[in-house]
Amino acid sequence: MNSNITYREYHPDDSESVRILLNKVFTAAELSQELWLERTSKDFTAPVALDGRKTIGAIPHRKVTLQVAPGATVTAWVQHRVGTDETYRGQGVGNGMQDCIKAILKDRADVLMVYRGAEQSGPYKFYDKNGMHDVTYPKTYRLSPVSALPENVKKITLNEFFERNAEFLNLFNLPHRDLGGFPVRNTRFYRERFDDITAVRGPDTRFDVFVMESEGKLKGYLTAGAYRGMYKAMEAVAEKWDTGILESLLTAFRANGENLYFDVTPGSAIENAVIAAGGTTKTRNESSIAIMAHVYDLESTGRKIWNPVPELENVTVKVWTPEREGIIHAATRPDREIILEMKEPTLSRLMMRRLNLKSAVDEERITATGLHHGDPDHLTSALAPCHWQYHYIDHI
């Protein structure tokens, strides 16, 4: 461990040195000065590692409002591209930056997150060692091309897509209102995401937007991007997750490219449509995606993800792991308390509403003190598991 290395939060004065460092580390995703300044102008921070005045490491973070479950949103900071100067690797610089960001975000984050793959790789193990735990596993499907665009789907320009932004946002929100696992969309979302994809994937990226309408009303849409010989679906949405709409959108996607890929959530309507279209996937051992999370602030996150249940109104609920403990439900007039005991990976899934608490208690993944008859059912209602919906466009 190099004792001369120091860590601190990113400052605008670091802009050029951090950009140059990350461009050297990630040569396939170099960012121009203009794009870097644009991407770091808001909702951005990073831990920076220094050897004297030399910038030797940085981990960009962007802030998003994440919908965990219906009516439950948290402030999440998403990590991107752990960049360390190659001459300093193996000296604990990455771990030092992870410790630094946790101190930086002490009062500014509910959750830290990262999108990661290759569960047997060094980078995945790095995140796992630093307290990030899997909460969902999207799958990558490969599809074969078809020759003709379906008559009930048309392609529109990006400008038209942006001009009709409110219409597309409304269609997105309706079928997603009972789901979680995605950043809340706003009027800037799509334009910023397309700019991000262009920056990361290169200026030759091509975007397509397919829409299905009936009697002048938008019924579904699919966005896709072509880059480096790959054509990838980025987001698909259909009114009421209608199977016929999704299948038509998929056909349009398949008619406009080669080397087709679609990342989808297991068990979702989109996955069912992809399978029906002949999509094939690999095992997690061969190819995997994991969304990893670390619940940073237990009390703040607890307030936001707790679904009020009358039977627990006067019950304080605490959680305990071998690493920490905290309150996730503070009763205004407490007359008793429950302590839920578990390991950190279980805590991450519980707080991200990805775990059935009653089943976890039955299986002893969670033990508890202070339980009364009926409490497991009431706690399961308060922290009801929610189906997450992943879209590749959220990953960038």
Could you describe the 3D structure shown?
There is one protein chain. By secondary structure, the protein is α+β, with helices and mostly antiparallel strands. It contains 14 helices and 22 strands. It has helices at 15-25, 33-39, 93-104, 122-129, 158-163, 165-176, 189-201, 243-254, 269-276, 298-305, 344-351, 357-362, 375-382, 392-395; strands spanning 5-9, 44-45, 47-51, 54-58, 61-69, 72-79, 83-84, 111-117, 133-136, 139-143, 154-156, 182-183, 206-214, 217-227, 230-238, 260-264, 280-281, 289-295, 315-320, 325-329, 336-341, 367-369. Helix 8 packs across helix 9. The longest helix is centred in the middle third of the chain and has 13 residues, at 189-201. The two termini are 32 Å apart.
List the helices and strands and how they pair.
Blueprint (H helix, E strand, L loop, with lengths): L4 E5 L5 H11 L7 H7 L4 E2 L1 E5 L2 E5 L2 E9 L2 E8 L3 E2 L8 H12 L6 E7 L4 H8 L3 E4 L2 E5 L10 E3 L1 H6 L1 H12 L5 E2 L5 H13 L4 E9 L2 E11 L2 E9 L4 H12 L5 E5 L4 H8 L3 E2 L7 E7 L2 H8 L9 E6 L4 E5 L6 E6 L2 H8 L5 H6 L4 E3 L5 H8 L9 H4 L1
Parallel strand pairs: 6-8, 15-16, 19-21
Antiparallel strand pairs: 1-3, 2-5, 3-4, 4-7, 5-6, 5-12, 8-18, 9-18, 10-16, 10-17, 11-13, 13-14, 14-15, 19-20, 21-22
Helix pairs in contact: 8-9
